[in-house]
Amino acid sequence: MNRFFITTPIYYPNARPHLGSAYTTIVCDVMARYKRMCGYDVAFLTGTDEHGEKLQRAADAAGIPVERFVAEKRELFKNLWRTLGIPEYSPKHPAGYRFVHTSQNPDHVKSVHWMIRQAQKAGYITKKKYEGRYCIHDERYVSDSTEPANCDICGRPAELISEENYFFRLSAFQDRLLKLYEEHPEFVRPDFRMNEVKSFVKSGLRDISISRRRLKWGVPWPDDAEQVVYVWYDALTSYLTGIGFRGLEATDPNSDFYKYWMDPNAERVHMIGKDILRFHAVYWPAFLMAANDALPQDKRLPLPTTIFAHGWIYYEQDKMSKSKGNVVYPEPIVEALNSFGAPGNDALRYYLLRDTPLGQDASFSYEGLIQRYNSDLANGLGNLASRTLTMLHQLCEGKVPRRIGPSEAQGAVQLIPAFAEAFSRLDFSTGLASVWAMISEADRLIVQVKPWELAKSGSFEDKAKLEGTLSMVAQFLRVVSVLTYAVLPAASSVLFGYLGESGTVEGERIDDKLKFQLLASDTKVAKPEPIFPRLDKEKTLAKLYELAEADRVRERAVAPVPPWRDRRPADESRTKGATVEQQPEQKPPSAEPEPPRGTGFQPVKQHAAKMAAPQAPTPADQKISIDDFAKVEMRVGEVIAAERIPKADKLLKLQVDIGTEVRQVCAGIAEYYEPEKLIGRKVVVVTNLAPRKLRGVESNGMIVAASVEPEGRPVLVTFQEDVPKGARLK
RNA sequence: GGCGGGGUAGCUCAGUGGUAGAGCGAGGGUCUCAUAAUCCCUAGGUCGGGAGUUCGAUCCUCCCCCCCGCUACCA
After folding, report:
1. Nucleotide nearest A355, from its CA to each C1'
2. Which bases of chain B are under 7 A from a protein CB atom?
């Protein structure tokens, strides 16, 4: 049997899961159900990555053991999946999710150790001494400047430290990765993401640091008690642990790992958000290649077949939640729709999958949800089912007539391969659109035939036409209920039952056997109850807002200031790549950007638009003394020359007269200030900052500016009164 | 700055070397089996701007503007 393995990211449980995480998981659930109905042997994995300093600190702050703390967080995820009707694996739900967690998991330690040992054997791991600026308070490296620098986050002076870390020779895999991308264009999808990955790899890979000495909460480094495995190996390897991997030698030959991963014909799909593409498309295959280099040919681990990076879900700003905490949670949405008798889960799933093609950023809005629901589900499928069933009762004694409409069925039959083709590409939007195009056809056919008029005539021909048409539509509805099951599990099951079927929809198979005329003649159909009751826009919106607000209040009451949350407000998620959770706890010594912990997360972003969020104020416990402040020398200077620096978007080179001398200072303000207009302007310069070269240009100081969110726009400090050059700020 | 992708009806987008389409919304009409649903008609849009190739370009070439992504550079 064909095998299909799909994973969500291994989520970092530092906050309650929001709509973004739900989106990824829903997509995987849909795919798991769909593939299962196509006859695949399916495994679906999700989980939580529970290591990392941030979680440990949060647990400490909460005064509970970190193991218990993360176990509680884990439940938040499982609870959400339960609310969303996403089943956990069981004999009854073979395509339900399996859950892997990393902490206190000896099996996972075995997996990780095995992966690392293989890479060591193959010579890809080296221990290197690293020197750099480290902010003790924030547990992170600050910058690579050669003179004392302050921490970006807390402003404290960073210390020069040296630490030995294990490094992975990622650079050794550049050519092999490029070859992989060439030979397997489906390895990264959508294709435009593949282009990004390729160009990133082509530009050269740096070795990455894969251990930490200062951390305690994590997988211990094999044979080195002083080091802890850093996020990469820990989180990515959990994809293997989750299906039974314990290191190749210790893995049960009958385990799912051999079924779903080692099978060369299995499809292995990692569904992720676009923000974590690089780690999955570059690091992960490199880790696997590294391990394979230490193995004989016949024992090598296959690579994933596809890394699918979907887009983010944006939340259209609305009046009700202008204050803050605009993150959208799925539970109140489902609850609100349910309260009107609508299948909330199905509606949400349908909206998310139909409205935006997977891979593109989605713009979530309550109005869009209601709109989609009413036009497609209520007016479309729901109404078609309703009118058809009613007519069967009124005109055909409540049974599916024997006759089959002849030629009209042609188009509907062709629907199935088109739908299947789109879904297999994860193009849910197109697949669903094709179904709804057919629903529209069916509506048109009914109006064209007018069964209610034919019934009046009483002639044999008319009766035959009437019955043939209604029977055909009923058969069509049966097919629709099967095809839409993966997306609309609850509603399609109801429809299936209405049509007189006694089995379950999920027991059906989407293959050559899924044809028309499967409803037995004379099948008794149910008297219809609206499957998708139409929603009143105003009332539903009001309910959605009300429940979202109630949810927010409840959340605050439970955790007044969740310590594991970012210090920054969530809606500051502005600039390129910055996300809700962008707050690196430690920066790797290499210049690689810091990822979030976990294999991923899906931020619900605001439309950056005009949201202004204040920079988080310095917490009270981070106050500095007057002496600390006195160390910083700031003086008034006058710009006497300004020019752009070639090949730098943001940098201006300024000559600033600070009274005693003229300083050359670089400032990252080119996007907002015209160089010509700066000349003659008084600015504030930090004059005792260590010199640093930026883009090859030496900078002796720093121009002081406010950083205005959301995009971090710099605004230069100015004086209302006239101030002489050289005046010191105190 | 480099690389890549885009700018088409109010919105979301499709599309072809011969002067442009779908869905939704909106307006009008119709039917009555149906969830005030369905069905039918209606959008006259400089297909980002300019130049060129061509008998003819929205689709081909060049230049420019703007947007997005990755990347570099920025604390």
Report:
1. B12
2. 1-5, 13, 24-25, 31-40, 69-75
Cβ–Cβ < 8 Å for A337, A351:
no
What distance in Å separates the CA atoms of residue A386 and residue A528, rounded to the nearest whole number?
6
Kindly indicate the confidence band of residue A462, based on its pLDDT and cuts at 50, 70 and 90.
confident
Per-residue DSSP letter, A300? P
Our measurement of CA A330 to C1' B56, in angstroms, reads 55
**Spatial distance between the Cα atoms of A544 and A551, rounded to a whole number of angstroms:** 10
Which nucleotide's C1' sits nearest to the alpha carbon of A529? B35
pLDDT digits (tens, 9 = 90+) for A600-656: 433 344 322 222 222 233 333 345 667 767 777 888 888 888 877 766 777 888 888
* C1' of B7 to CA of A54 (Å): 43
pLDDT over 60 (residue A596): no
pTM of the entire predicted model: 0.81
> Half-sphere exposure of A369 toward its Cβ, with a 13 Å CA cutoff?
23
Distance A609 CA to B48 C1' (A): 22
Determine the nucleotide nearest to A274 by Cα–C1' distance.
Answer: B69
Render pLDDT for A99-140 as a digit per residue (tens, 0 to 9): 999 999 999 999 999 999 999 999 999 998 766 655 555 455
In degrees rounded to 5, what are phi and psi of residue A137? Answer: -60, -45
- The DSSP H or E segment spanning A412 is helix A409-424
Please say whether the beta carbons of A303 and A269 come within 8 A: no
Q: CA–CA distance from A410 to each of A210, A431, A441, A572, A683 (Å)?
A: 58, 18, 12, 53, 75
User: Residue A75 CA to nucleotide B74 C1', Å?
Assistant: 41
